[in-house]
Every structure is written in C-alpha cells, then in structure tokens.
Design a protein that fits this description.
Elements lengths: L5 H9 L3 H20 L48 H6 L8 H20 L4 H14 L3 H10 L7 H5 L10 H5 L3 H21 L1 H14 L13 H15 L7 H8 L21 H24 L1
Amino acid sequence: MRLLPARSVSRALDRPSPRLLAALAVAGLLWVAVILGSDPTVSVTDPLSGHLAWAQDARSYFGFDYGNLYAGRTDWNAVGAYPYSPAFAQLIWPLNQLPWPLFVATWTGLLLAAVFLLTGPELAIVGLIVGAMEIAGGNVSLLLTVAIVAGFRWPATWALVLLTKITPGIGLLWFAFRREWRSLSIALAATAGIVAVSVVIAPGLWRDWIDLLMANAGKGGTWAAIPVPLWVRLPAGMLLIAWGAPRNQRWVVPIGAMLALPALWYGSLVMVLGVIPLTTEDERRRAWERVLGFVRADGGLAGEA
C-alpha cells in the first residue's frame, strides 16, 4: 500500500514538477467550477430544493434532519437520497453545520485530495481526468477507494465501506482467502464498535435504515449506471479477489469492490485509481503492453476475417 506519504508531499512541494503544477491548476479550476456550478439556492433545511446542477450527488450528504434522517430520502435513485447508515451521517455532522456553498467547497476539496493521495504528484493529472465526472457529481466513491487502499495497512478503514455502500465490503474476502484473520477481525471489530456507539445515540434511525434497505432491495441504477445487474457483478468481483489473493495481487481488491457496488455508476469507475498505489510503475507498464498487444492481435484477426 503506497498512499502518498508526508515526505513525498513535502518533497513534491519543495520542487514541484511541471506535471504537479499542471495537476494543481486543473484541480483548482475543477474546484471552482463545481462550487460555481452547484445550485446556490439549496437550503440546509431543504436539500432537495432548486434545480439539478453540479454536485447533485453531494446533496445526499447535506441537510440532514438527525431526528428523522431518512424522511424524503428513501428512493436511492433520486437526487438527495440517503441510503447509507446513520453512522456515516453522524460522522459528517460537522459538515452539515455549513451553508451549502461551503459544504460543496469542503466536500469537493476532500475528493480532490483523495485523487492526489491515490495517484501521487506525477499521475495526478491522469487521476483528475479519470475522476472529473465523480468530482463534479460529488459521490463518495473516491473516499471509499482511499479507505480500501489504506485498509491494507489500517484494516479499520473498511468501516467506511461497510457503513455506506455495504456490498463493496466483499473486498474483505482478501483477508479471508489469505488467512489474515487479525486484519479481518480489526476491520469487523472497528465497524461493530462504530455501530454500537451509533445505535446507543439513535437506535430508531437504525431500524429506519434497515427498512429502507429492504424497500430498495433489487433496485438497479438509472441511465447513469452501467446496465449490468449486481447479481452478475458481485460474483465476478468475488472471483477476481479469489484469483488475486494467493498471488498477492492487491490491485484486485479495489476493482472487485467497484464491481460489487449496488449500482455501477459511470462516475464510480474512478475506483480504478486504486490500482495505482497498489502496483509499481513497472507492473503498470507491463500490463498496458499486454493490453495493447491484445488489441493489436485482435485487430489483426479482425482484419484477416
């Protein structure tokens, strides 16, 4: 696991490369564009108000009524829906004290920071291009990817995955297939501990969440999702992790988790950035050469046909 360390950040800022400068410029422009493009009329008391604009997915994490968390937010295909656990809403309580423009600025800043953590300074421009749709929308996939990558060193970060999207938690099979029971236990215990505290604070919200999950079970995504159902993608993700675990191919975990998303939104393809910190430059180069070789061979066969 090679999330960008503090020493690398200091060194990159001391001697910024042209690639880093370009990435910082693009990140700044994207940050400003999302803030200006989001509907400024959205109210903290009515996050579903106003017109559809940039940061539409971010409305799912804003304007919570902590006494009735899921009221008006149960249709998970609608703007402003909140299908996640009460624990995540409680975690981001401080952000919900901000007015909408400041919330968007902070949330978008977190997503941009996640890109730089995953890619490092030299590949950040690539990450920003790949993640532009997700950053503009404001979904949580980039933060989940950071949690998954960090989970190889700090398994407790898997709690973020299990308490939001849930099904990408199949990535924990990595620890089971490798018999890394201590890491698996830490991930599950951390999640259980957070749940226990949250239940004590608001037990009724957890009953509401379970009801919401049951009501939305089996629902697919909208036109903005890749039209492959979860019952196909979930086993594929599990098989990929089962293949990669004994071979120590860590990159399979974020890809398998991505395949297991409840709906594979086009923006969620940004989770492929999790491959970067889990592979070396040489491994990525060889993989790219194999892909190009396959494409050339396939093109040659097509030409002969």
